[in-house]
Amino acid sequence: MSQFDVTIIGSGPGGYVSAIRCAQLGFKTAIIEKYSTLGGTCLNVGCIPSKALLASSHHYEELQHFADHGIEVSGDVKVNLEKMIARKQAVVDQTSGGVKFLMDKNNITVFNGVGSFESATSVKVTKEDGSSEIIESKNIIIATGSKPSSLPFIKLDKDRIITSTEALKLKEVPKHLVIIGGGVIGIELGQVYLRLGAQVSVVEFMDRIIPGMDAALSKELTKVLKKQGMKFYTSHKVQSVERAGDVVTVKAENAKGEIITLEGDYSLVSVGRRPYTDGLNAEKAGVKVTDRGQIEVNDHLQTSASNVYAIGDVVRGAMLAHKAEEEGVMVAEILAGQKPHIDYNLIPGVVYTWPEVAAVGKTEEQLKADGVAYKAGSFPFKALGRARAGGDTDGFVKILADAKTDEVLGVHMIGARCADLIAEAVTAMEFRASAEDISRMSHAHPTFAEAIKEAALAATDNRALHV
């Protein structure tokens, strides 16, 4: 029987990063993965493949505007979806292989199979051929992630009525893709196929898309995507999704009680994700799981079984790969007797459309609801020399600061390179910088990052320089 100091169930970003940190700290470490490849949802059917398709479709879209830059492309520019999907898979395979390399490098034992508890210190690994073995471990970390959610009345056939997993490997560009859910995943995949020539309609229950982010970001992204051709049906409650042959019919009720009907050849159901604890047998370890499948943890991510921890999508909080990574490192360091800490307010969120959307900290809506006196400063990308030079003038940066102390409370941005620019805001807020602190930092010219400095100036006595 194999014995380990720490065993991690699940090899997604939270799991494999936690395993690496445990190994670095001197623990004899094992990781269990039910699939044949490592990396979990993120690397295989989530973050990485979706960004590969976003990149490929973005290149195709940019080609349509090369003439604006004095570059003439002769002949028809065509989409080879099969090759695009193959490139995506190559990126996935390379990235997953990189995780395997890291496991070997750090002497982490990998078990392929389904991990299920036999007790608080033993896990059974059931392999694909039906055989199994027992692992004994002093500590166990649950990192089993999440799966796409659906609605009770929708029958997912994974052919025409699909989830994000199937949307990453379609064999044709849809004529009309009807997306149910205007969150991050739906909007990102919607833009991929919009660029490739599909008609895209988004049905969203809330009154705006990306409803968890600042309302100003939602408004701007809606405006830009409408300009690109995407259609939105917000404040619409889906009533039914039916398939007849190659036609999928979606019926939804609007705020007036009227029923609208949308017909497409594909419907992407993108209504969020649910914690995945199926088959874990957590009760055998004394681990409490909620009715929704979420594992209960304390502030140290410790479950009701003192030697069992849980991280990532399977516990409370945002379902983000980088949040899971931070939690994985935190648990490893707690086991080593250290005192790590995570400020969940400073976990950034990103939408990888173009323009990109990124945010950290409090939204205006949250500050108003909490009764916090604040001041806001915004700066449009169209006023930046670098944005005009590159032709990426959509969007803005908005900084929210405490009205009395000037401490930055939230940063919200939409525009080119915002997924990378948000790191400056996270850094500033980690050190409790004021808007004036940021405004007095030198930013290279010409760069997109200058928008952050200008927004800080706008929040500091409304003294932006270039508007």
From TrEMBL:
Its cofactor is FAD. Residues 4-328 form the FAD/NAD(P)-binding domain. It comes from the Bacteria. The keyword Oxidoreductase applies. Disulfide bonds join 42-47. Gene3D superfamilies: 3.30.390.30, FAD/NAD(P)-binding domain. InterPro entries: Class-I_Pyr_Nuc-Dis_Oxidored, FAD/NAD-bd_sf, FAD/NAD-binding_dom, FAD/NAD-linked_Rdtase_dimer_sf, Lipoamide_DH, Pyr_nuc-diS_OxRdtase, Pyr_nucl-diS_OxRdtase_dimer, Pyr_OxRdtase_I_AS. The active site is at 445 (proton acceptor). FAD binds at residues 51, 115, 144-146, 313, 319-322. It holds the Pfam family Pyr_redox_dim. GO terms for cellular component: cytoplasm. Residues 347-456 form the Pyridine nucleotide-disulphide oxidoreductase dimerisation domain. SUPFAM superfamilies: FAD/NAD(P)-binding domain, FAD/NAD-linked reductases, dimerisation (C-terminal) domain. NAD(+) binds at residues 181-188, 204, 272. The active site is a redox-active disulfide bond. Belongs to the class-I pyridine nucleotide-disulfide oxidoreductase family. This is Dihydrolipoyl dehydrogenase. The lineage of its organism: Bacteria, Pseudomonadati, Bacteroidota, Flavobacteriia, Flavobacteriales.
